[in-house]
Amino acid sequence: MTTRTALITGASRGLGRALARSLDADGWHLVLDARHPDDLQAVAAELPAAVAIAGDVADPGHRGALRAAAAELGRLDLLVNNASTLGVTPLPTLARHRLDVLRQVYEVNVLAPLALTQLTLRLLRSSGGTVLNVTSDAAVEAYGGWGGYGSSKAALEQVSNVLAVEEPDLHVYWFDPGDMRTQMHQDAFAGEDISDRPEPETVLPALRRLLESRPPSGRYRAADLAVPA
């Protein structure tokens, strides 16, 4: 049986780390990215078979290194564009949102996933692979203060939507995991207790169900993919 390969961005924390652990347990080859070298190396120490490359997904050279690592493994079955940024916190209203910060949010949350997809398309096409873009309910709901991040995720969703039409031999998913107890969520709600939010690991059964059942390309929410008890 051919060993499948996944490239996961934002793999040092939260949902990216949880998914990396889950796929590793099932024998997948992994290429892992994150901005913080120490956090990424801690994950790599758990998953010694994984290729861990620290860097910023907004950097073209770093994206090239990720693509090269996947090519070295011989195939790419799954690209997970999970890395993202809020920009600044506390989250500003649109009236006060600095445009230079907003440009960086779009660079990381929209342009980098598209650029990495472009780089890896040949590998993905060869395997009939899957592109998974992690989105948010902030892409479709109007929350005060979330205009920058939310609009970037809305753009990512439309990129995903069009990619699914243009690449019918791939499976393209934009996946909304719902609220989770992550560092990003804590940063968004600085000083608040978010212990009532579920851990990222609780989303894994729904996410793995999506990846293994491979329904038609589209937007999927973890809440709608809950695995029956």
Task: Provide a quick synopsis of the model.
The chain has helices at 14-25, 37-46, 60-72, 99-127, 147-166, 183-188, 204-213, and strands spanning 5-8, 29-34, 51-54, 78-81, 130-134, 171-176, 218-221. It is of the alpha/beta class and 229 residues long.
SSE topology sketch:
Layout: E1 5-8, H1 14-25, E2 29-34, H2 37-46, E3 51-54, H3 60-72, E4 78-81, H4 99-127, E5 130-134, H5 147-166, E6 171-176, H6 183-188, H7 204-213, E7 218-221
Parallel strand pairs: 1-2, 1-4, 2-3, 4-5, 5-6, 6-7
Helix pairs in contact: 3-4, 4-5
**Whole-number total of structural domains:** 1
Helix share of residues? 40-55%
Low-confidence stretches: none
Quote the beta fraction: 5-15%
Please tell me the overall pLDDT: 92
**Straight-line distance between termini:** 30 Å
Q: Indicate the structural class.
A: alpha/beta
Plain-language structure description:
The protein has helices at 14-25, 37-46, 60-72, 99-127, 147-166, 183-188, 204-213, and strands spanning 5-8, 29-34, 51-54, 78-81, 130-134, 171-176, 218-221. It has 229 residues and is α/β, with parallel strands linked by helices. A seven-stranded parallel sheet has the order 3-2-1-4-5-6-7, sandwiched between helices. Helix 5 (147-166) links the parallel strand 5 (130-134) and strand 6 (171-176). The longest helix is centred in the middle third of the chain and has 29 residues, at 99-127. 43% of the residues are buried. The model has no long low-confidence stretch (mean pLDDT 92).
